[in-house]
Amino acid sequence: MNGPAVVTLVSAARLDHAQAQWARTAEIEGLRQVTVWLDEKSPPRLPGTVIHLPPGANGLRLAVGRNVGAQAAIDGGADLLVFLDADCLPGNNLIERYCTASREHSEAMLCGPVTYLPEEFVGTTPADLERATKPHSARPNPTDTRCELAPADDYRLFWSLSFAVTAPTWRRSGGFSELYEGYGGEDTDFAATLLERTIPLVWVGGAHAYHQYHPTQAPPWQHLDDIVRNASIFHSRWGSWPMEGWLNAFAKAGAIRFADGGWMRVT
């Protein structure tokens, strides 16, 4: 059976948010679900095709998880892969807009706008989400019926929170680099690969997703070691440094320093 499939990566820490997502996707007729469970322990009962992917030596394997989730969706007959972060609720027209855009731009990577919901937000009805719509200002937000082709400089804005791609274009992309484990870097690496392989990036108006609130740190101190390690992997592959804002913040606080051409922890 052809059609779209949603691929969601989830751990126990984000299970409640993912349950809210699945309550909405379950209402969409013909939409299949692929769920990748990232924790060491066996998963609880989860919707759709379930893949258990325990952590690697350096943390959760997000890049591998997206790759195995995509392959499972394709093996199940999906011709459009919709990747949604576990924290994200799909907007009222997200699947419809991605499907329409995929017919118009079958050789492109498709990205919709994301609204960060405030802590005080309650309710998940279509009207609730519509009233809350306020997409993150760092990324384009075309009108609801439009798609915009991203220039080369915009590839750095690619976000894995919400994106979609046809099965043939996913194969052409090669998927995410599986060198990355733990937090950070794999999105930017994937975007660099898309640009290198001349795969268009298209902003899809109306394909709204809504990121549910959870506490964060800025910079994310809990991920310091992951960020330093993954930034070094990215630099070795592409010759530039990702996540520079966070790296500079860690350095300003005295936690890391730049020496001999790379970042390292201060002991």
Give a brief outline of the structure.
The chain has 267 residues and is α/β, with parallel strands linked by helices. It has helices at 15-25, 62-75, 94-104, 126-132, 167-173, 186-196, 224-238, 244-252, and strands at residues 4-10, 32-37, 49-52, 80-84, 88-90, 109-111, 114-116, 147-149, 162-166, 201-204, 209-211, 256-259, 262-265. α6 runs parallel beside α7 (224-238).
Number of helices: 8
What overall geometry do the principal axes of the alpha carbons give?
A: globular
Question: Architecture of the largest domain in CATH?
Answer: Alpha-Beta Complex
What does the largest sheet look like? 8 strands, mixed
CATH superfamily descriptor of the largest domain: Spore Coat Polysaccharide Biosynthesis Protein SpsA, Chain A
The CATH topology label of the largest domain is: Spore Coat Polysaccharide Biosynthesis Protein SpsA, Chain A
* H-E order: EHEEHEEHEEHEEHHEEHHEE
Cα end-to-end separation? 56 Å
Radius of gyration: 18 Å
The pLDDT mean sits at 96
Class by SSE composition: alpha/beta
Provide the domain count. Answer: 2
What's the arrangement of strands in the largest beta sheet?
Answer: 3-2-1-4-9-6-10-8
State the name of the first-level CATH class of the largest domain. Answer: Alpha Beta
**Which residues sit in consecutive blocks of at least 5 with pLDDT less than 50?**
none
Helix content: 25-40%
**Proportion of beta-strand residues:** 15-25%
